């Protein structure tokens, strides 16, 4: 009996193997473009692409619906690709290392990708390597400039580095918070990476500017300033925000990705307010009064458009600022009581015209902020 | 006074999930099954129950507030039991290494939560509205001193946590079932020799553990975020530490959870407490204190605490 069973099992196994080899019937259409000639080590991807991919996005730490830069960038890719009927796909690296990032980039190129969007500061070394390895492929590096470890940035002719004037976005948020009537503010950043540091500095400067404009006394506006040291929701972040609200803080700018959800949880219970970050977070909680935006989608869209018009700005560092409509506050979904559209337009125009220049320097090692404020009292927590 | 009651209220947000999950770990380890999978069970419980709340809140169903929380707790407990079944089957029936099956659950849970959230929802984050917060418990909340300490800015789950603690103590030490649980973790062959079905008792322990860990996951997320983002921030592993700190005994687990929760609340909230903030001690120091203090206490108490003797060993009837 056992022997019969074993025989049956073996037959089944063999049969299923045969079945497996037959199903794929690989008739891969030739990729839209052949991989780069002279590629050093041709790799065999795990998945054979059925169609050539034209536009690819390799995700950073996080996913394409992280509610932050991956999502914003991917939406830019999708918007262009769907409007123009172009194949597109995203790749998620197996690991958060430069080697894994390069593997994912290679996988995209083997699949036929001609333009690869890499969102995130952590891609700086991977793109630095890849831009030389694949000179015929175009790279769009968001939030950073390609550079060797510890070295000076090098932007090759097939790469565009995209930065955002987060300090202007933060400035608008700080200005709006004080003009709205708040005097006790808070800033909780995720990790002190350059983009977050710029958000924080801008926030302080915006509050300072508003305090000057309103003629407030020195020390009347105060800002608690801290980093949560995480981008994920955590009870520690909730408790920190709850303690601040309990201590009289009225509004917290949470430039901390998912950790912002914990700030919102604290705000809901304590009756506090929150300023969201990166994308419009008004739907996440009733307490989100506005969000300091980065125009990820629009900027990715515009660069892809340039690429198809043969105007790819290779070798350039593009800084999307107020003048290019790359940052701002979503006034339609904001829940301001006193701050008006007219006030917003006025301050935005001053930023766009360059009459107000917000300091965008990030100190070496992202150390404690070194801002001279005359009116705003900064309570640095760290 | 205001500061003290604030710290106390925040302490509960750390303490109650740790307490419940550690009690869950206790039930599993007291029957002899190592439960390193607490994190995964917590995460799965949190995921399904938050998803349940999300679905109900976005539907026309007229369930909201505390009844919804109770239903969600049942969902969380049920999920924990289902996940625990896998752990139980592998470690009781298949005599597999209990650490490995636990690690497998821990690796599976976040991946599953992300995948399922994408398939059934729109995004990785599962949002929910917090309708469960109780600003002040009727009558009790207005008692001077005790009211602000224990009955304001709270959740129904805080009292549920204490109820489960007392019930667990009673079950473990005052019932026949509790005696059998403990016997199977110390010397299962001896238990078997007097006619106890070791497999069944071990199953019971692991499944109770799953239910408590699942509920702990929900209780952990509700006060501390507006969305579930496929993480419980390592609190399942902390609960494991609390379990060991608590020497596998319910009342000592309560003490350990309270001790750790209090230090965490002070560490995280110090920047909003003027007295502590003005000391000018770096934030990193505060973050370190709960862990250093736990180490110190463990160093003095661990010699007296002993794990159940048969923990980690698959039950083999033939061994004498």
What does this structure look like?
Chain A is 38% helix and 17% strand. With 382 residues, chain A is α/β, with parallel strands linked by helices. Chain A folds into two domains: 55-164, Response regulator (Rossmann fold), CATH 3.40.50.2300; 166-294 and 328-380, 3-Layer(aba) Sandwich (Rossmann fold), CATH 3.40.50. In chain A, strands 12-10-9-8-6-7-13 form a seven-stranded mixed sheet, sandwiched between helices. A six-stranded parallel sheet of chain A has the order 2-1-3-4-5-11, sandwiched between helices. In chain A, helix 5 (166-179) packs parallel to helix 6 (194-214). Chain B has one domain: ABC transporter involved in vitamin B12 uptake, BtuC, CATH 1.10.3470. The interface between A and B is large, with 34 and 39 residues.
SSE layout:
The complex is a heterodimer of chains A (382) and B (320).
Chain A: H1 2-22, E1 55-58, H2 69-84, E2 88-91, H3 98-110, E3 115-119, H4 124-133, E4 138-142, E5 159-164, H5 166-179, E6 184-189, H6 194-214, E7 222-227, H7 235-246, E8 251-255, H8 259-270, E9 273-278, E10 288-294, H9 296-308, E11 317-320, E12 327-328, H10 341-353, E13 377-380
Parallel strand pairs in A: 1-2, 1-3, 3-4, 4-5, 5-11, 6-7, 6-8, 7-13, 8-9, 9-10
Antiparallel strand pairs in A: 10-12
Chain B: H1 2-30, H2 38-57, H3 65-93, H4 98-120, E1 126-127, E2 134-136, H5 146-150, E3 152-154, H6 156-174, H7 176-186, H8 188-193, H9 198-221, E4 227-228, H10 235-245, H11 250-269, H12 274-277, H13 283-301
Antiparallel strand pairs in B: 1-4, 2-3
Describe, in short, the structure shown.
By secondary structure, chain A is α/β, with parallel strands linked by helices.
């Amino acid at each position: 009996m056992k022997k019969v069973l074993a025989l049956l099992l073996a037959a089944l196994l063999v049969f299923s193997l045969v079945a497996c080899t037959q199903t794929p019937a690989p008739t891969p259409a030739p990729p839209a473009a052949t991989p780069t000639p002279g590629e050093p080590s041709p790799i065999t991807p795990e998945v054979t692409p059925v169609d050539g991919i034209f536009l690819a996005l390799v995700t950073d730490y996080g996913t394409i619906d992280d509610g932050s830069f991956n999502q914003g960038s991917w939406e830019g890719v999708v918007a262009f690709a769907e409007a123009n009927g172009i194949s597109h796909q995203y790749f998620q690296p197996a690991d958060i290392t430069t080697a894994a990032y390069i593997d994912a980039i290679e996988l995209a190129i083997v699949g036929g990708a001609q333009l690869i969007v890499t969102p995130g500061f952590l891609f700086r070394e991977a793109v630095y390597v890849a831009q030389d390895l694949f000179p015929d492929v175009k790279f769009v590096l968001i939030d950073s400039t390609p550079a060797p470890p510890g070295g000076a940035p090098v932007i090759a002719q097939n790469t565009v580095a995209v930065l955002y004037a987060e300090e202007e976005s933060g400035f608008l948020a700080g200005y709006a918070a004080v003009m709205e009537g708040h005097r006790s503010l808070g800033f909780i950043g995720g990790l002190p990476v350059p983009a977050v540091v710029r958000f924080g500095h801008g926030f302080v400067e915006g509050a300072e500017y508003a305090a000057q404009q309103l003629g407030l006394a020195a020390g009347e506006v105060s800002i608690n300033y801290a980093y949560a040291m995480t981008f994920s929701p955590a009870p520690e972040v909730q408790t920190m925000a709850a303690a601040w609200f309990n201590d009289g803080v009225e509004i917290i700018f949470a430039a901390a990705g998912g950790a912002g959800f914990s700030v919102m949880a604290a705000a809901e219970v304590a009756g506090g307010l929150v300023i969201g970050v990166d994308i419009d977070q008004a739907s996440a909680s009733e307490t989100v009064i506005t969000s300091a935006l980065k125009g990820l989608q629009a900027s990715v869209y515009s660069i892809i458009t340039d690429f198809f018009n043969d105007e790819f700005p290779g070798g350039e560092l593009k800084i999307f600022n107020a003048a290019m409509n790359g940052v701002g506050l979503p006034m339609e979904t904001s829940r301001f009581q006193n701050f008006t559209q007219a006030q917003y337009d006025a301050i935005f125009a001053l930023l766009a015209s360059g009459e107000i220049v917000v300091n965008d320097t990030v100190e070496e090692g992202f150390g404690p902020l070194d801002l001279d404020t005359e009116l705003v009292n900064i309570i640095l927590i760290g | 006074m205001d500061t003290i009651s604030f710290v106390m209220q925040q302490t509960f947000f750390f303490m109650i999930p740790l307490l419940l999950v550690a009690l869950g770990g206790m039930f599993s380890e007291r029957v002899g099954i190592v439960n390193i999978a607490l994190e995964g069970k917590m995460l799965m419980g949190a995921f399904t129950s938050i998803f349940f709340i999300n679905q109900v809140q976005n539907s026309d169903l007229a369930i909201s507030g505390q009844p919804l929380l109770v239903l969600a707790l049942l969902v969380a407990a049920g999920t924990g039991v289902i996940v625990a079944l896998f752990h139980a089957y592998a470690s009781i029936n298949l005599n597999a290494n209990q650490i490995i099956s636990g690690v497998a659950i821990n690796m599976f849970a976040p991946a599953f939560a992300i995948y399922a959230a994408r398939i059934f929802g729109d995004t990785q984050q599962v949002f929910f509205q917090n309708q469960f917060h109780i600003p002040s418990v009727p009558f009790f909340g207005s008692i001077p001193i005790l009211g602000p300490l224990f009955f304001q800015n709270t959740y129904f789950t805080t009292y549920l946590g204490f109820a489960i603690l007392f019930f667990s103590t009673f079950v473990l030490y005052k019932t026949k079932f509790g005696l059998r649980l403990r016997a199977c973790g110390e010397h299962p062959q001896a238990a078997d020799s007097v006619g106890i079905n070791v497999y069944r008792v071990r199953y019971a322990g692991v499944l109770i553990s799953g239910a408590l860990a699942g509920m702990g996951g929900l209780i952990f997320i509700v006060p501390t975020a507006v969305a579930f983002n496929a993480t419980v921030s390592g609190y399942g592993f902390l609960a494991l530490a609390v379990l060991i700190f608590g020497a596998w005994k319910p009342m000592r687990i309560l003490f350990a959870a309270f001790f750790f929760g209090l230090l965490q609340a002070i560490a995280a909230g110090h920047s909003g407490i003027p007295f502590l903030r003005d000391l000018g001690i770096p934030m990193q120091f505060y973050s370190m204190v709960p862990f250093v203090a736990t180490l110190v206490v463990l160093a003095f108490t661990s010699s007296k605490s002993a794990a159940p003797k048969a923990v980690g060993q698959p039950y083999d009837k033939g061994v004498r």
